[in-house]
Structures are given as structure tokens and as C-alpha cells.
Amino acid sequence: KRVLELAPRDGEAADALNPKVPENPTEALLRGLSEFAKGGDRRAQLPALERIAKAADAFDELIEAVEAASEEATNDAEAAELLRFVARARPPAAARVHWNDLLAILPADTEALDQLFKILKAEGEARPAAEIARRRAISGPVGPERVERLIEAGRLFEDAGAVDEAVDAFEAALPDARVL
């Protein structure tokens, strides 16, 4: 019985919908990464390559290939998608740089702002966390969540000794708080 391999072959896109894993995942991954490096629709290839890399116990190699591809992306949408993949796959400390890179492309990206905020807060970096909290508030809709984020930013600025910025954040929350 022939097992359908998911890695791209001779320039064909990966069959991202096929859940089967090839008989020799390491070989399939090498072929797939070779095609991935050539370009094309990398985002379409990722799901199949991810399954194969996990089966080959070579997920780190896939992450490195995706990271390299993100630097060579031909447009912002592709770069953002690839950076998001890498950031999700890396441990928080290593993901931080990728979330920042994603925010350079998409400054109001909710997931990147949320993840970076969690990382900075966990690392005890009050001022950068406060700045991200303020960005999260500004990019979100008016309402209770915005007020909470501005207050949180104010508290973090206060913890960082940035009193003027803390006051600014608290004052920015007032108009929205009055509406509630």
C-alpha cells in the first residue's frame, strides 16, 4: 500500500488537507524544506510540513526554516504569517523578538500585543509592559476592556517610576470610564 507523502514534490504544493504521515517522514521533510526554501506559497505548505516535522521529530528544523523564510518574504502578509508561526512555536523568551518583528509589520496585531504583554509582564519589565498595555488599549474598542488596560498601563508605569506616563494613562481612562 502506497502512503501519500505530504511534502511538495517537483514544485507541487503540499497537500495540506491530507492527515496521513509519510512512511519516511525525515526524507519527506528534507524534500519539503527544499521546496519551502524555493518560495512559492509557503503559507499553504506550512500545515503539511508541520505534521511531517513532528512525525520526524524535527520541529526545530522547521522553525529555523520558517524563520529564515520570514526574512526573505516578498510581502508583509507572508512575513507576518511566518513570524506568527515562529513566535507561537518558540518558548516565550525566544518568541519575544518575533512578536516584536510582527508588530513592526502589523502594529495593532491583537495576538502579538497580547503575547508580548504576557512575556514582558512575566519577565518583570514594567515599563515595556506598560507601553504594550497602552497600545493594546488604544488599538481596542472603547469600553470596559479599554479602561482596564489603561488602568493596568498606569499601574505598570507607576511601578516603573514613570509617574507622568502613569498619570497620562489614568487620565486617558477617565472619558471611557465615565461612559460606563
What gap, in angstroms, lies between the N and C termini? 65 Å
Poorly predicted regions = 1-18
Helix content: over 70%
Spell the H/E element sequence: HHHHHHHHH
CA radius of gyration: 21 Å
Mean pLDDT: 86
Secondary structure tally, helices: 9
Give an overview of the whole structure:
- The protein is an all-alpha fold.
- Helix content is 72%, strand content 0%.
- It has nine helices and no strands.
Throw out a few tags for this protein.
9 helices; 72% helix
Structure in a nutshell:
With 180 residues, the protein is an all-alpha fold. It is built from nine helices and no strands.
Topology:
Layout: H1 25-38, H2 42-55, H3 59-71, H4 76-89, H5 92-105, H6 110-122, H7 126-139, H8 144-159, H9 163-179
